[in-house]
Amino acid sequence: MVERTIVGAHYGLSGWLAQRITAIVMALATLVMVAGIWSASPLTYAIWKGLFTKWWMWLSLSLFLLSVMLHAWVGVRDILMDYIKPTGIRLTLEVLFLLALAYCTVWAMQILWRI
Amino acid sequence: MPDLTAKKKRPLWYNLSPLNLPLPGLVSIFHRVSGALLFLGLVWFLFLLDMSLASEDGFARFRGHVGHPLVKLLLLGFLWAYLHHFFAGIRYLFLDIDKGVDLAAARASSYAVLAVSLALTVLLGMRLW
User: Fold this and answer.
1) Cα distance between residue B25 and residue B23, in whole Å
2) Of the ranges B19-28, B32-41, B93-102, B109-118, which one carries the lowest mean pLDDT score?
3) What are the domain boundaries of chain A?
4) Residue B37: which residues within 8 A CB-CB, separation 6 or more?
5) In chain A, what is the greatest distance between 2 CA atoms, to the nearest angstrom?
6) In CATH, which of 2.30.300.10, 1.20.1300.10, 1.20.1260.10, 3.40.50.300 is domain A13-114?
7) Looking at residue B44, what is its pLDDT?
8) Which of A14, A30, A62, A86 has its C-alpha lying 20 to 30 A from A71's C-alpha?
9) Quick check: A68 contacting B, CB < 8 Å?
10) Average pLDDT per 10 consecutive residues for chain A, totaling 115 residues
11) Cβ of A28 under 8 Å from any chain B Cβ?
């Protein structure tokens, strides 16, 4: 007799974990950036731009933007899986949202490299 | 012989109001709704960030843009969405490691999430206005 254990392939575990890790990263980055922006005054263009050239602000912003893309993807996928039952429509929407997030990631990098 | 197929008149009480949810349920659905809102706002936030950092002129346009009363109202909505998602998310991280899962603690933390995110929205909103 063949022994079979049906435990699945841990589909979704990596997504679940990524969602938590990115959440913690974003929460910390938020605190750093809020503190940075709070301490910057008066808010002129030079000060605003100068703020983001500081390494800890730049690091926080870049970690935040990268994390938010991953985090949003897991969340959107969860929502689509819950409410959109026909596979074809769900797959189409998933591809559209994924493309949108990929576009946003490239845009975010462009913003970061220009600072 | 009684007619077994006849439908009995039974009282109907369908209260489908989402506000009838227990507090943890309310926090949960708001977490999802705020997350979806923030996702939709992502492109706009990137647009604002890009504009504000691009140039002196862009920064001035950014200030003008976010100074508009309707935009401020929209930002206030996003501020609540962010704060609720933030605090509810922290609550879920604790629930994940089995902290605060009993009924009393779960209710208390739900109440705290709703209250703190609303209070901070009002406070920060007043300051930023």
Assistant:
1) 5
2) B19-28
3) 13-114
4) B77, B78, B81
5) 76
6) 1.20.1300.10
7) 96
8) A86
9) yes
10) 63 88 98 94 92 96 97 96 94 96 97 94
11) no
Residue B31 Cα to chain centre, angstroms: 5
User: Taking CA atoms, what residue in B is nearest to A21?
Assistant: B93
ipTM of the complex: 0.89
**CB-based contact A23 B93, cutoff 8 Å:** yes
Instruction: Give chain A positions within 8 Å (CB) of B42.
Output: 68, 72, 104
Query: What kind of fold does domain B24-128 have according to CATH?
Result: 3 helical TM bundles of succinate and fumarate reductases (1.20.1300)
